[in-house]
Specification:
By secondary structure, this protein is of the alpha+beta class. Helices cover about 40% and strands about 20% of the residues. The chain has 20 helices and 18 strands. It has helices at about 15-20, 30-50, 55-60, 75-80, 95-105, 130-135, 140-155, 160-180, 185-200, 205-220, 235-240, 240-245, 280-290, 295-300, 300-310, 440-450, 455-470, 475-490, 495-505, 510-520; strands at about 20, 85-90, 105-110, 225, 230, 255, 275-280, 315-320, 325-340, 340-355, 360, 370-375, 385-390, 395-400, 405-415, 415, 425-430, 435. The strands form three sheets. Strands 8, 9, 10, 11, 12, 13, 14, 15, 16, 17 and 18 form an eleven-stranded mixed sheet that branches. A four-stranded mixed sheet has the order 5-4-7-6. Strands 1-2-3 form a three-stranded mixed sheet. Helix 7 (about 140-155) runs parallel beside helix 13, helix 8 (about 160-180) packs antiparallel against helix 9 and helix 19 (about 495-505) packs antiparallel against helix 20. About 40% of the residues are buried.
Length: about 525
């Protein structure tokens, strides 16, 4: 393996994604961290060799992942580049729209933290075992790798609601608390209650929530093959000792994969009671395409406006001639008889708004006021006073002061006055092909309104607390280092290993090093699984 400190061939990401990326601090991994990796990967590969998708074992090697030590992202990127992918390190949870856009670009977001030795079998918090050894291996299958990118596109095009963010924050907090050795039972109960409250207040299930469910039941917890003898390919199954064993038991209901999976919610902190089985990886595309057809991004029209209005979040409207307008849809006004699935004649977006074309902003700074979008086959009014009387009974009057802004706006529908802003960005579009989540030019929008970094103060403090809680007594840390040196450099000294085993009696809670020493004293023969003596 190449040097761990060598430069990572990380992708050049736009600012709104790059601010979540951190450098992988490889020297910070301790001998016990590597022992956790070795223990989990050793057991997983033995357990999954005849249960995972055939790409799994070859995929570990093909993506730069070994069994002896935590992988360096520099080495992973050299391998992933051959598959058209790359990887970056992140801290803990990142927002769903960031994760999905990275995935759409062929970038794996890999949490650089590793689970504690108390949680080797399963952790709800993101860690490098799950993100690398779970997500990367099946990328060796080109068709599945393409599905992941397409699934990422659908995820960040889907419209999210304000309530979705509250649920995400609650899930993130609960998973971090459950992984924190210093968290009290009361703290865990409070985090669980906060998640229940956030879910109860979510209301109608959003497009983004359905996209998350599709991803969960396929890329995270998917099975493939026959219902009677499925194989594992989901990252959550490939990285959890408990889930990998539990998922194939009769106690887990196996259902044929269909679009119905997006109606099935999940609990990230518990083992799954049912799983969905894809016939093969082509089956994933059939379900994904059926899901895409339900999204406002594809449907547009009245449906798209209704979804965006209900969400109360920043989204963008796809207008005619390749233009987009980004903002919060406050309301829309029907008027004309529906044509091509659309009766809307006017949509009001709250400020600030951004006008763009083909995903690139046409403004150097945001327009702070609202925007009015007129739908129909008519030109936008030129400079000066105007009066537009539209077919569906909508009348709009005002003064166009430049190519876009209109002032002194008044309007009525069937003679009844409309509550309109006095001035607005006035746009016209022949129709509304689609409405998609987030800003059309996310990089510029983030430059204007984004947060300064990708890790909140609270999460950083929690990570620091966890690191302090996992710190080893000096003598135990020295023993880990000594055993690690023997493994890496030799020679193995049976007499000294026996002495270390005896000394570990002073550390009854540390089973992991005791197991490491035992494996060095009595290695397992790979072909038979039986113990063999040291040479």
């Amino acid at each position: 393996m190449a040097e761990h400190g060598s430069a990572t061939a990380a992708p050049a990401l736009p600012r709104h994604l790059a601010r979540y990326v951190v450098a992988q601090d490889y020297p910070a991994y301790t001998p016990r961290d590597h022992a956790v990796w070795r223990h989990v990967l050793g057991r997983l590969t033995a357990q999954l060799q005849d249960k995972a998708h055939p790409s799994y074992l070859e995929g570990l090697q093909a993506t730069g992942i070994g069994l002896e030590r935590i992988p360096s992202l520099a080495e992973m990127n050299r391998c992933l580049a051959r598959l058209g992918w790359s990887a970056v390190a992140v801290r803990g949870f990142i927002p769903p729209e960031v994760f999905t856009e990275m995935q759409a670009r062929g970038v794996l977001a890999i949490a650089q933290d590793i689970r504690s030795h108390e949680h080797v079998e399963y952790t709800p918090a993101p860690d490098i075992i799950h993100e690398s050894a779970g997500h990367a291996p099946i990328l060796k299958d080109a068709r599945y790798a393409e599905y992941l990118k397409r699934c990422g596109v659908a995820g960040f095009k889907a419209i999210a609601t304000r309530a979705d963010r509250a649920v995400y924050d609650a899930i993130r907090q609960l998973s971090v608390v459950k992984e924190d050795p210093g968290a009290s039972p009361a703290t865990v109960r409070a985090a669980e209650a906060a998640l229940l409250e956030a879910r109860a207040g979510r209301g109608p299930v959003s497009e983004s929530a359905r996209a998350s469910r599709l991803y969960w039941w396929t890329a995270e917890y998917g099975l493939v093959g026959s219902l009677a003898q499925p194989r594992l390919y989901g990252a959550g199954l490939l990285s959890s000792l408990r889930e990998a064993k539990h998922c194939l038991t009769p106690g887990v209901l196996k259902l044929p994969l269909s679009l119905a999976c997006v109606e099935q919610d999940f609990d990230i902190t518990r083992m799954q009671p049912q799983l969905f089985v894809a016939r093969d990886f082509e089956h994933l595309f059939e379900v994904l395409e059926a899901f895409e057809a339900t999204l406002a991004w594809k449907r547009g029209g009245d449906h798209g406006l209704e979804q965006a209005c209900r969400a109360g979040t920043v989204n963008h409207l796809l207008l005619s001639a390749g233009r987009e307008v980004t903002g919060r849809v406050a309301r829309w006004i029907p008027g004309a008889p529906p044509a091509a699935g659309m009766s809307a004649q006017l949509a009001l977006l709250e400020g600030p708004v951004m006008l763009s074309r083909a995903g690139r902003s046409l403004q150097r700074e945001p327009y702070r006021g609202p925007a009015l979008v007129l739908f129909g086959p008519f030109p936008a009014p030129g400079p000066g006073p105007f009066r537009l009387a539209l077919e569906g009974g909508l009348v709009l009057e005002g003064v166009q002061v430049d190519t876009r802004e209109a002032r002194h706006l008044r309007g009525s529908l069937h003679g009844q006055p409309l509550d309109l802003p006095g001035s607005a960005l006035l746009l016209a579009s022949d129709g509304l092909p689609g409405v998609a989540g987030g800003a059309a030019d996310a990089e510029t929008w983030d430059l204007w309104f984004g947060e300064p970094d990708g890790c909140s103060t609270g999460e950083a403090e929690n990570l620091a607390r966890r690191s302090r809680a996992q710190a080893l007594p000096d003598r135990l840390a020295a023993l880990y280092r000594e055993v690690a040196r023997m493994r890496a450099e030799g020679p193995l000294e049976p007499a000294r290993l026996d002495q270390i085993q005896a000394e570990l009696e002073h550390f009854p809670g540390d089973w992991l090093l005791r197991r490491e020493v035992g494996e060095l004293l009595h290695p397992v023969a790979p072909s038979t699984g039986s113990r063999r003596a040291l040479p």
